[in-house]
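User: Can you write out an input/output pair for a complex, sequences first and structure second?

Assistant: Here is one pair. Inputs:
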Amino acid sequence: MARFRNNKRKRDAVVRPIAKKPSGGGVDHVTGDKIPKSFVFSRGKLPGPLKQLQMDLRKLMLPFTALKLKEKKRNNLKDYLNVAGPMGVTHFLILSKTESASYLKVARTPQGPTLTFKICDYSLALDVAQSQLRPRCPQELFKNPPLIVLSGFGTGDQHLKLTTIMFQNIFPSIDINTVKLSSCQRIVLLNYNKETKLIDFRHYSIRLQPVGVSRRLRKFVQNHQAPDLRTLQDVSDFVTRAGYGSESEADDEAATVSLASDLGRANQASSKSAVKLQEIGPRMTLQLMKVEEGLCAGGVIFNEHGPVEEAKKQANQEENGEEDNNANQEENSEEDNDED
Amino acid sequence: MSAEEAAASSPKKRKSRTTRGVKGKKKAKVFSRTEGQGKKAKKIDGRMKKLFRKRARDYNSDEDDDNEGNENLSLNSERTVEAESDEEAEEKELESGSEDEGDEMETGVMKFVEGCRAFSLAFNKITKKSVSEDLLGPVLSGHKKLLAEKLAEEEADHKVKADAKKEKNSLREKGHVKPANFLDSHEKFLISVATKGVVKLFNGVNKAQNAQKGLNPSRTKDAKALAKRRKAAFLSELHKKPTQDAESSKGANSAATKKEDGPGWAPLRDSYMLTSSKLKNWDKMQDTNAADDMGETPQFSSSDED
C-alpha cells in the first residue's frame, strides 16, 4: 500500500487509458446518464433459503448486475470493491446472517453511505410463484430494468430521505420523453409504514390489457390460435356474446391508462388499457437499522436502537473499518483519475 | 523360583502325554533327572533330535498303530524329559512370562482331550433345552433385555438428533414465510399503490410523448418547434431554485434541456473555471493548487457529462 501511495502519480499515468473505457460504456445511450450497476453478494455463510433470496435479488437487479457472480469464502469487501471500480459497479447489496436475524446492506460504492436493513421476513420468488394459480414470468421480463415506486417515505426524516435517494439511484433513471413503454415491464415497490417502521419490498410484473374488450376477443388477438366455435350458432356470437367476467376484471378507473404508443398486439395507442400487476417475488419486510457514512464503515448517521449504542458501535467500527477506509481512499483517487 | 515352578508344572505336562497308569513313577523319575541332568540333557539334545527325526521318517502312518504299545511309551517318556529340560533352559532365561503361556497351552490341549465328554454334555444340554418362541429368536434370547435396551437407546438417540436437526432447520428458515394463496388486504393495498405509481408514470409518458407526436425531428420546422418547447421547459426550470436543478439529476426534463443550453463541452461554457473559488487566484497559490488538483477535477467532468 505504502509503495503505491508513493508512486501514485506514476501509476496514474499508466492506468488512465485502461480505466477510461468502462466509464464510457456505463452510460445510457439516450439520456446520457450513468447507468447504475450492482453486485449482490453475501458476507459469511448463508443458509439455503437465503442463498435463494440472494439469487432472486440478483434477478431483480437485472440487467445491470452480475447474475453469476462467483463468491469465495476468502473474498472480502475489499476484493469486491477492487473489482467494482473498473466494472463501473455503483451499488452493493450485501446479505448476511446472524443467529438472531438476517440482514441486507445496501451500499453505494466506493464511498458509502451504507444502509443496513434487518430482514424481518421474506418470501422467495419460488414461494410467490407457488402461491399463484398462474404464475407469470416470461424471460423478456428481466431484459429491462424495473421501475421503482417509493411510497410513504416523505415524512421528512433524514434517514428516510437518504433511503429514498439510495433506492432511486439503484436503478437507471427514466427519461419520460424518450422511454419506450415496452421496456417498462417490472416494478419494485417500497412502502414505508409509519407505525411499524417497516418497509415492504415487493416486486411486480406489469401487464397491460385493453379495456372494454371481452376476454374472448382479447385471447383471440393475443394468441395466434383459431378459437373454438363449436358451441356457437353463428360467427357473430363470438363477438357479441359477452364472456363471463370475474370481479377482478371489472374495470378499475384508477388503473386505466391511455398509451402513448402501441404495445404488443392487443394494446393500441388510441384505446385505453388497464394496468395489471402480478407479483413475481421476492418479497421482503425490511426494517432500517443503521445508516453508516462509509462503505460498511465510518460514522453512524442513524441507528434504530438510539444514540447510546450508536457511540459504542461507532467506536468499534472505527477500529474495524480502518482497512476499508484505506481501500475507499484508494478507490476514490482512482475514480478521480478516470474522470479527469 | 522358576525352576521350582517348572518342577511343579512338570507333572501336569507329563500327564498330557503319558497314559494314566504310570503317573507316580514317572513323576519321580523326571524330577530327579531334571534336577541332576540339566546339562546332560542338552548334550543329548542334538543326537536325540536326529534320532527322533530318523524314527519319524521311518514311521509311517500305517505302521504307527503297530508300534504304539512299547515304543510310544518309551519315546514319550524320553520326549517329555527332553521337552522339559528344554523348557527349563528357556525358563531360566525368560523367567515367568513365557512359562505361563506354555502351561496354559498344554493344559488347554489336555482339557480338549479330556473334556470331550463335558463338551458333548453341554452341547446336549443346549440342544435339549426348550426355547420359548420369541420375536428376537432363540439365539439372542439371552440378550433380549440388552437388545431392547439398545433399541430404546437408539430411538432416544434418533429423537435427539431429529430435534437438533429440526432446530437447525428452523434457524435456517428463520424469517422465511410462505405467502398465502389469496391476496390479503395488505397485499391488495400494496398492489394498488404500485398500480397508482405505474399509472402516474404511464400518463406522464403519454403526455410528454403525445406532445411530440406530430412533430418529426428530422424536419427543420418541427425540430425548431421541439427546440422551442424544450427551451421553454428549460427556462421554466431555470426560474426554479438553482439548487433544485443541480439536485434533480434524475429529473427527466433537466437532462434533456441541459443539452440545448450551451456548448456541451465544459471549457466552452461561460462559467468555466469561474465557479470554483479555488482556481480564481491560481497564479497566487500555485502550490496549493497543485495539491487540490486531484480533488477539483471530477466536478468539471461531471458537469460536462450533463
